[in-house]
Amino acid sequence: MKIKLSGKNLGDIIPLLDAMGFKQTRGRPELIVAHGGDGTLLMAERDFPSIPKLPLRDSGTAPLCTRHSYEKQLKMFCDGKTARTELTKLSGEFDKYRITGMNDIFIHNLERVSALRYQVWIDDELYANEIVGDGVGLATVHGSTAYYRSITHSIFRVGLGLAFSNSTEAVNHLVIPASSVVRIKIMRGPAIMVADNSPEKIKLDEGDEVCIRQSPEKAIIFGLENFMCQQCRILRHPNKYPFKNYYPSFK
Q: Domains in the chain, ordered, with CATH?
Protein backbone atom coordinates (compact mmCIF):
# COMPACT_ATOMS: atom_id res chain seq x y z
CA MET A 1 0.00 0.00 0.00
CA LYS A 2 1.26 3.49 -0.92
CA ILE A 3 1.41 5.78 2.11
CA LYS A 4 2.57 9.14 3.37
CA LEU A 5 3.64 9.79 6.94
CA SER A 6 2.60 12.69 9.15
CA GLY A 7 3.81 13.59 12.63
CA LYS A 8 6.98 13.36 14.69
CA ASN A 9 9.38 10.60 15.73
CA LEU A 10 8.60 8.77 12.48
CA GLY A 11 11.83 6.78 12.79
CA ASP A 12 10.08 4.77 15.51
CA ILE A 13 7.60 3.29 13.03
CA ILE A 14 9.27 3.41 9.61
CA PRO A 15 11.15 0.09 9.99
CA LEU A 16 7.95 -1.67 11.04
CA LEU A 17 5.97 -0.13 8.19
CA ASP A 18 8.65 -1.21 5.71
CA ALA A 19 8.66 -4.75 7.08
CA MET A 20 4.88 -4.98 6.69
CA GLY A 21 4.93 -3.91 3.07
CA PHE A 22 3.86 -0.27 3.31
CA LYS A 23 5.57 1.86 0.66
CA GLN A 24 6.14 5.60 1.03
CA THR A 25 5.30 7.54 -2.11
CA ARG A 26 5.88 11.03 -3.47
CA GLY A 27 2.64 10.80 -5.45
CA ARG A 28 -0.91 10.53 -4.20
CA PRO A 29 -1.04 8.00 -1.36
CA GLU A 30 -3.77 5.51 -0.55
CA LEU A 31 -3.34 6.10 3.19
CA ILE A 32 -1.90 8.68 5.58
CA VAL A 33 -0.28 7.23 8.70
CA ALA A 34 -0.52 9.95 11.38
CA HIS A 35 1.96 9.29 14.20
CA GLY A 36 1.32 11.42 17.28
CA GLY A 37 -1.69 12.67 19.17
CA ASP A 38 -5.00 14.38 18.48
CA GLY A 39 -3.28 17.43 17.01
CA THR A 40 -1.32 15.29 14.56
CA LEU A 41 -4.52 13.67 13.30
CA LEU A 42 -6.16 17.09 12.83
CA MET A 43 -3.09 18.34 10.98
CA ALA A 44 -3.02 15.26 8.74
CA GLU A 45 -6.67 15.73 7.78
CA ARG A 46 -6.03 19.39 7.04
CA ASP A 47 -2.96 18.65 4.89
CA PHE A 48 -4.43 15.60 3.12
CA PRO A 49 -8.23 15.95 3.05
CA SER A 50 -10.31 13.06 1.69
CA ILE A 51 -7.42 10.58 1.95
CA PRO A 52 -8.01 7.84 4.59
CA LYS A 53 -6.02 8.16 7.80
CA LEU A 54 -4.58 5.56 10.15
CA PRO A 55 -3.71 7.37 13.40
CA LEU A 56 -1.13 5.81 15.75
CA ARG A 57 -0.37 7.29 19.14
CA ASP A 58 3.32 8.10 19.58
CA SER A 59 4.29 5.52 22.21
CA GLY A 60 7.20 7.71 23.30
CA THR A 61 4.84 10.35 24.68
CA ALA A 62 1.61 8.34 25.01
CA PRO A 63 2.12 4.81 26.36
CA LEU A 64 0.06 2.15 24.63
CA CYS A 65 -1.80 -0.68 26.32
CA THR A 66 -0.92 -4.26 25.36
CA ARG A 67 -3.81 -4.45 22.90
CA HIS A 68 -2.62 -1.47 20.91
CA SER A 69 1.09 -1.87 20.27
CA TYR A 70 2.26 -0.70 16.86
CA GLU A 71 2.65 -4.28 15.70
CA LYS A 72 -0.86 -5.32 16.69
CA GLN A 73 -2.52 -2.25 15.20
CA LEU A 74 -0.68 -2.55 11.88
CA LYS A 75 -1.30 -6.29 11.63
CA MET A 76 -4.99 -5.73 12.30
CA PHE A 77 -5.07 -3.14 9.52
CA CYS A 78 -3.22 -5.39 7.07
CA ASP A 79 -5.66 -8.22 7.88
CA GLY A 80 -8.62 -5.97 7.09
CA LYS A 81 -9.89 -6.04 10.66
CA THR A 82 -9.61 -2.33 11.46
CA ALA A 83 -12.91 -0.48 11.63
CA ARG A 84 -13.45 2.37 9.18
CA THR A 85 -15.19 5.52 10.48
CA GLU A 86 -16.48 8.53 8.55
CA LEU A 87 -16.42 11.71 10.62
CA THR A 88 -18.45 14.83 9.96
CA LYS A 89 -16.57 18.00 9.10
CA LEU A 90 -17.58 21.65 9.34
CA SER A 91 -17.27 24.49 6.88
CA GLY A 92 -16.94 28.16 7.81
CA GLU A 93 -17.48 30.71 5.03
CA PHE A 94 -16.92 34.45 4.89
CA ASP A 95 -16.74 36.42 1.66
CA LYS A 96 -14.24 34.54 -0.55
CA TYR A 97 -12.74 32.65 2.38
CA ARG A 98 -13.57 29.10 3.46
CA ILE A 99 -12.09 26.93 6.18
CA THR A 100 -12.93 23.39 7.28
CA GLY A 101 -12.59 21.65 10.61
CA MET A 102 -12.94 18.13 11.90
CA ASN A 103 -13.45 19.19 15.53
CA ASP A 104 -14.82 22.72 15.49
CA ILE A 105 -14.88 26.18 13.98
CA PHE A 106 -14.75 29.13 16.40
CA ILE A 107 -14.90 32.89 16.22
CA HIS A 108 -12.80 34.61 18.90
CA ASN A 109 -12.16 38.20 19.93
CA LEU A 110 -8.91 39.36 18.32
CA GLU A 111 -8.16 41.90 21.05
CA ARG A 112 -7.93 39.83 24.23
CA VAL A 113 -8.74 42.84 26.45
CA SER A 114 -11.93 43.68 24.55
CA ALA A 115 -15.04 41.50 24.42
CA LEU A 116 -16.69 40.52 21.18
CA ARG A 117 -20.26 41.56 20.39
CA TYR A 118 -22.19 39.49 17.91
CA GLN A 119 -25.60 38.26 16.75
CA VAL A 120 -26.55 34.65 16.02
CA TRP A 121 -29.08 33.19 13.61
CA ILE A 122 -29.92 29.48 13.35
CA ASP A 123 -31.49 28.57 10.00
CA ASP A 124 -32.27 32.27 9.43
CA GLU A 125 -34.13 32.54 12.75
CA LEU A 126 -32.62 35.06 15.14
CA TYR A 127 -31.42 33.24 18.27
CA ALA A 128 -29.55 36.05 20.02
CA ASN A 129 -29.78 39.76 19.20
CA GLU A 130 -26.60 40.63 21.05
CA ILE A 131 -24.10 38.49 22.93
CA VAL A 132 -21.00 39.85 24.63
CA GLY A 133 -18.18 37.42 25.27
CA ASP A 134 -14.90 35.91 24.14
CA GLY A 135 -16.30 33.90 21.27
CA VAL A 136 -18.74 31.45 19.74
CA GLY A 137 -18.31 28.24 17.81
CA LEU A 138 -19.78 25.10 16.34
CA ALA A 139 -18.49 21.60 17.08
CA THR A 140 -18.99 18.15 15.60
CA VAL A 141 -19.79 15.06 17.65
CA HIS A 142 -16.10 14.11 17.49
CA GLY A 143 -15.12 17.64 18.53
CA SER A 144 -17.56 17.65 21.43
CA THR A 145 -14.88 16.04 23.61
CA ALA A 146 -12.40 18.85 22.88
CA TYR A 147 -12.85 22.63 23.20
CA TYR A 148 -16.66 22.35 23.25
CA ARG A 149 -16.44 20.23 26.39
CA SER A 150 -14.11 22.67 28.15
CA ILE A 151 -16.67 25.45 27.58
CA THR A 152 -19.92 23.59 28.23
CA HIS A 153 -18.74 20.77 30.54
CA SER A 154 -20.78 18.41 28.38
CA ILE A 155 -20.61 16.29 25.24
CA PHE A 156 -23.21 15.15 22.72
CA ARG A 157 -23.75 12.18 20.40
CA VAL A 158 -25.83 13.54 17.52
CA GLY A 159 -26.10 16.83 15.65
CA LEU A 160 -23.87 19.87 16.08
CA GLY A 161 -22.95 21.75 19.25
CA LEU A 162 -23.17 25.55 19.50
CA ALA A 163 -21.06 26.93 22.36
CA PHE A 164 -20.64 30.45 23.74
CA SER A 165 -17.33 31.22 25.45
CA ASN A 166 -17.40 33.46 28.54
CA SER A 167 -20.66 35.14 27.64
CA THR A 168 -21.88 37.88 29.96
CA GLU A 169 -25.48 36.97 29.11
CA ALA A 170 -27.31 33.89 30.38
CA VAL A 171 -27.33 32.21 26.99
CA ASN A 172 -27.81 28.48 26.55
CA HIS A 173 -25.35 26.25 24.75
CA LEU A 174 -27.27 24.26 22.15
CA VAL A 175 -27.21 20.94 20.35
CA ILE A 176 -28.85 21.54 16.99
CA PRO A 177 -29.68 19.34 13.99
CA ALA A 178 -26.77 18.42 11.74
CA SER A 179 -28.49 20.18 8.84
CA SER A 180 -28.57 23.54 10.63
CA VAL A 181 -26.81 26.62 9.30
CA VAL A 182 -25.46 29.06 11.90
CA ARG A 183 -24.95 32.67 10.83
CA ILE A 184 -22.92 35.02 13.00
CA LYS A 185 -22.65 38.79 12.52
CA ILE A 186 -19.91 40.79 14.21
CA MET A 187 -21.34 43.88 15.89
CA ARG A 188 -18.08 44.89 17.56
CA GLY A 189 -14.74 43.37 16.67
CA PRO A 190 -12.23 42.74 15.46
CA ALA A 191 -12.48 38.97 15.53
CA ILE A 192 -10.83 35.92 14.00
CA MET A 193 -12.32 32.69 12.68
CA VAL A 194 -10.27 29.52 13.21
CA ALA A 195 -10.72 25.79 12.66
CA ASP A 196 -9.29 23.01 14.83
CA ASN A 197 -5.57 23.60 15.49
CA SER A 198 -4.93 25.27 12.14
CA PRO A 199 -2.60 28.31 12.16
CA GLU A 200 -4.82 29.90 9.51
CA LYS A 201 -6.84 32.85 10.85
CA ILE A 202 -9.54 34.75 9.00
CA LYS A 203 -9.92 38.31 10.29
CA LEU A 204 -13.45 39.66 10.77
CA ASP A 205 -14.47 43.27 11.32
CA GLU A 206 -17.64 45.03 12.41
CA GLY A 207 -20.53 44.15 10.11
CA ASP A 208 -18.95 40.96 8.73
CA GLU A 209 -21.08 37.82 8.65
CA VAL A 210 -19.99 34.20 8.76
CA CYS A 211 -21.92 31.02 7.93
CA ILE A 212 -20.92 27.76 9.62
CA ARG A 213 -22.49 24.48 8.58
CA GLN A 214 -21.82 20.79 8.11
CA SER A 215 -19.48 20.21 5.19
CA PRO A 216 -20.22 17.64 2.48
CA GLU A 217 -16.66 16.39 3.02
CA LYS A 218 -15.95 13.52 5.41
CA ALA A 219 -12.85 12.52 7.32
CA ILE A 220 -12.15 8.80 6.82
CA ILE A 221 -10.38 7.32 9.83
CA PHE A 222 -9.26 3.72 10.39
CA GLY A 223 -8.93 2.46 13.96
CA LEU A 224 -10.45 5.44 15.72
CA GLU A 225 -11.56 3.24 18.63
CA ASN A 226 -7.94 2.07 19.08
CA PHE A 227 -6.65 5.64 18.92
CA MET A 228 -9.12 6.69 21.65
CA CYS A 229 -8.70 3.59 23.85
CA GLN A 230 -9.67 4.19 27.49
CA GLN A 231 -7.01 1.80 28.78
CA CYS A 232 -4.30 3.67 26.88
CA ARG A 233 -5.64 6.92 28.32
CA ILE A 234 -5.30 5.57 31.85
CA LEU A 235 -1.63 4.80 31.19
CA ARG A 236 -1.09 8.38 29.98
CA HIS A 237 -2.97 10.07 32.84
CA PRO A 238 -2.93 7.72 35.85
CA ASN A 239 -3.67 10.50 38.35
CA LYS A 240 -6.94 11.32 36.59
CA TYR A 241 -8.29 7.81 37.04
CA PRO A 242 -8.23 6.91 40.77
CA PHE A 243 -10.44 3.87 40.08
CA LYS A 244 -8.24 2.49 37.28
CA ASN A 245 -7.89 -0.82 39.09
CA TYR A 246 -11.57 -1.46 38.43
CA TYR A 247 -11.02 -1.49 34.68
CA PRO A 248 -10.42 -4.99 33.28
CA SER A 249 -6.82 -5.55 32.29
CA PHE A 250 -6.03 -6.46 28.70
CA LYS A 251 -4.03 -9.62 28.08
A: 2-83+223-246 (3.40.50), 89-216 (2.60.200.30)
